[in-house]
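thread: overnight batch results

M.L. [08:02]
morning all. the overnight job finished for the chain we discussed friday. pasting input first so we're all looking at the same thing
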Amino acid sequence: MESVMHDPSILSIFLAFAFIIFFTLIIRYKRITKCKQPPKAGGSWPIIGHLPLLNPSKLPHKVLGTFADKYGPIFTINLGVQDVVVISSSEMAKECLLTHDKAASGRPKSIATELMSYNYAIFGFSPYGSYWRTMRKIVVLEILSNYRVSMLSYVWKSEINILTKNMYDTWNKNKNSSEYVTVDMKQLFGDFALKTMLRIISGKQLNVNSDEWLRFQKAVRGFFEYVGSFVIGDALPFLRWLDLGGQEKDMKRVFKDLDDIIEGWLKEHKEKNNKSKEGQDFMDVMLSVLDHNATKDCNYSADTINKSTCLMMIAGGTDTSTVSLTWAFSLLMNNPQALKKAKEELNLIVGKERQVCEDDIPKLKFLQAIVKETLRLYPPAPLMGPREFIEDCTIKGYHIKRGTQLIVNLSKIFTDPKYWEDPSAFLPERFLTTHKDIDVKGQHFELFPFGAGRRMCPGISFGLRVVHLTLASVLHGFEYVSPNGAPIDMSESFGLTNVKTNPITVLIKPSLLSKLYAN
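M.L. [08:03]
and the structure it wrote out:
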């Protein structure tokens, strides 16, 4: 070794190599330190970060919207040990979800999604990779294709008829001299959406008073509650073992109840073995497309994939439809002129001699504008489903590290006065004039309630078809009056989706011939 170090040629090579390494490290260090970082929101606490500012008594999208007013359209917060970048402008969202879509296509792991999604088998919660790509392809081509959705359209059309008939029967049974009867539209919409998804997924048509229905409804509500809840162990993993508040224990219990129900459906479907294209529900389709080749490259069994996909469809199809219908109806009740205009359009296009059909929807321009304006003011998820950067990238000159979580504040973007005149007002007419070319399918970054890019919701078309026809049917079929003339309470509560807190108590009476409610 001593002779080597005294050899001038070898020593010069060694020194040159060391010199290169040294200066490479210096240049890299300077490059990293010069990287522009997004502004960090104030009020962070040691260890727990900004958690105290996002307490359950405050709506997170409102708190983060206030931060955006102070720190700008991109800023960072710390949720315990986790770095989070928050985007609050259309331009920033477009760059994240279009230009850097792949880099921002990860999904952060959480205790709830680990315990309640078959260990991330629900592909909406699964990491970006081959399994996610395979499952999305199956869902888009086999489950939510236009052909498959059209084949199953008879289900929600049937459930809409059942909904309006039940409303009529309630009125007919309880009407008094005033001709009006009290109903809770929020409950009716919730039951309708869940019954529709139950039939589409499993083929089951349950009575809402049956034990099986009540058990299923309770389990689904528990799923929504816990998947949308905050768990301290996510922000501070070193405290997870304590299971503060017993949330993990409750999650496991709720998930077991739900899994037992879905497992029972799967067993019934295997015994039935319906290979006919006609009358197939989602579970039948999954049984027919999931074979060894579809699952050989993943760590899940075909049964787990089937159950997890059905659970994803329940979560995606039930809560969002319920939320959209309840907010749209509430907004119309609080805006009588818009309600009157919607009913006039329905009477002009449909008339009083028949019920609304799906072919009427493209002609109902004001109704479509109502749905868009509802999704703008009350998007089902005001904070787009969280993502995670799987690569380092630069957003508007700011360096974002791999592993950073991404929150896109849709509520803030959709009420940006830069794009929306009088942004807090309910003005469906804007989608017939100044914003008539804007849709909600992820192409316009002023309004993308279902997300955009790779992680965009695959059930957009399905969901919009159900919401449009349901809203049109209930508006066309009945007259509505608010009790005592009081406005509908618009209080929000945050969970998996942006839920309306209180019931929608209204007085109803039919506006069509009685024979039309018997169909």
